[in-house]
Amino acid sequence: MTEWRRPFKSRRRDRGTPEARQWSGGPAAFEKDGEPAPEARPVDADAARPEPVVEEPRPRGPGRVVRLLVALLALAGMVAFALVLAKLTLVESPASERLTHTNLTPGRSIEAYLQRPAFVDTVKQLGGNLALGFPFGLLLPLLSRRTRGFLRVALVTAGTMLLVELTQGALITGRAFDIDDVLLNTAGALLGYLLIGRRLGRAVHPRTRRPWWRRPAPKAASGPAARERG
Q: Residue 22: is its pLDDT beyond 60?
C-alpha cells in the first residue's frame, strides 16, 4: 500500500507548485512578486464587441459634367488672364528704362509707393499689383481640388509671378525685377481666394473627407484586450 500512496502524495504536492497553479488557471496564476491576485470579474460579451463605426454621409457636389465644364471655363479664364498679364508686364518700355531699378529687398518699393505725394499714384501702384493677382484666387480653386487651398494658391501665384519678374529683369527693356511686385500679387491672390474663390471651390469640388483637425479621436478599446494592455 505504501508504494501506491507515495506517487499519490507526490501528485498532491505537485498541485501546490507554481507551475501547477498556473496550469490550473486559479487565482495564484495571476500573482506577481507577492501581490494579491485580482478578483475574477465576469466579461460582458456586448461590452467586448467593438462599436460599429458610422460613416457620415459625404457632401454631394455637382456632377462630373458640370465640374468638367467649370474646369474648362476656369482654364479658358486662366489663358485669357495670362495673355492680359503678358501684355501688361512683358511689353518693352524704352521710355522708362532710366527710371526702373532692380529691387531685391522686400518692402523697399512699397515704402517708396507710400511716400509719394500723389495719392492716386500710390493707389495705382499698390492696387494694380493686388488686382493683378486677384484672378489667381478665383480661378485656381475652380480648376481642380488639387489647386484649392490657401497655401497652394499662394505657392502657385508666387511661383508664376516670380517667373514673370525674372523674365522682365532679364529680357524686357524698360522692366526690372521687383520682389515687392511678387508679394503684392500673391497678397491679391489670397485676398481673392478668401473673399470668393474659397466658396466657389467648395461648391464645385466639395471635400470627401474631414480635415485632420476635425476628425473625431479614436475611442479606447474595451474588453479583455484592453485589460491585457493595461
A: no
